[in-house]
Structure formats: structure tokens, C-alpha cells
Design goal:
It is a single chain. It contains three helices and no strands. It has helices at residues 2-7, 10-113, 115-145. The model has no long low-confidence stretch (mean pLDDT 88).
């Protein structure tokens, strides 16, 4: 046993042990640091996934609201369009009633005024008809000069 003891260098063994402890310490230190970085990365990924999911939910909610608003506006537009067409029909009906009332009143005045008033009324109506024919001819001439056509021309 004396020979085995002499061959062992105590400083070499101590330096190997110290170097082994230093290497194990460095590896442990960097392993802990790497685990902390990985945990931080995972937390950031979870936060990013959560933010993305919330953004998608908000976007879907916004799209749903826009669709609901669009449907509401379309419904209101159709209601207003129906009401507008009804009012336009009422206006046309009232105009025709007004024309009828005016012509009835004019005829009644001519009848009450005697034959001279009736003659004057017929003459004024003939004048109106000839003026309207002249306007129609002028409009047809304007349309023809612009290479357009209408059923009345």
C-alpha cells in the first residue's frame, strides 16, 4: 500500500476536485438562468396568446355590432322608403284632386257667367293647348338635336 500512496498527488486531486466543483457550479448556475429565461418566455407567450384571443373576441363583437347596425339601418331605410312612396302617392292624388277641383270651379264660373264666359273659357283652353303643343314641339326638337327620342315625339 505504500506504493499506491506515493503515486497520488494530493494537489492534483484537490485541483481536480476544485475544478469539478467549479464546473458543476457553473453548469448549475447557467441551468437555473436558462430555466428562468424559458419561464419568462412562456409567460410572455401566454400573455401574447391571451391578448390575441381578446383582440379576436373584440373584433368579432365589433363585426357583430356592425352587422346589427347595418340590419337596423336597412330596416329603417326600407320603412322610410315605403313611407316616402306612400307620401308621393298621396301627393299625386292630392294634385289630381286639386286639378279636378280647379277645373270644376272654372267650369262652374263659366256656366254661371253665361255663354260669353263659356266661350272665353273654351278660347283660353284652346290657347293653353296650343301653347303646350308648342312647348312639346320645342322639347322634341331639342331631344332630336341631341340624338334622343321619346314616345311623345
Amino acid at each position: 500500500m505504500g506504493i499506491i500512496r506515493r503515486d497520488i498527488n494530493k494537489t492534483l486531486v484537490i485541483s481536480v476536485i476544485v475544478l469539478s466543483i467549479i464546473i458543476v457550479s457553473i453548469i448549475t448556475f447557467y441551468e437555473i438562468r436558462l430555466m428562468n429565461v424559458v419561464l419568462g418566455y412562456n409567460q410572455h407567450i401566454q400573455l401574447y396568446n391571451w391578448a390575441t384571443a381578446n383582440a379576436i373576441v373584440d373584433l368579432n363583437r365589433t363585426i357583430d355590432l356592425k352587422n346589427a347596425d347595418r340590419k337596423y339601418l336597412e330596416m329603417k331605410y326600407s320603412q322610410l322608403a315605403a313611407q316616402n312612396s306612400k307620401l308621393l302617392d298621396d301627393i299625386e292624388n292630392l294634385r289630381s284632386q286639386l286639378i279636378l277641383a280647379k277645373s270644376t270651379m272654372e267650369y262652374q264660373k263659366a256656366r254661371d257667367g253665361g255663354p260669353v264666359a263659356q266661350f272665353r273659357m273654351m278660347q283660353s283652353k284652346n290657347t293653353e293647348i296650343s301653347e303646350l303643343k308648342e312647348k312639346l314641339d320645342a322639347l322634341c326638337l331639342m331631344l332630336n338635336s341631341n340624338n334622343l327620342s321619346a314616345g311623345e315625339c
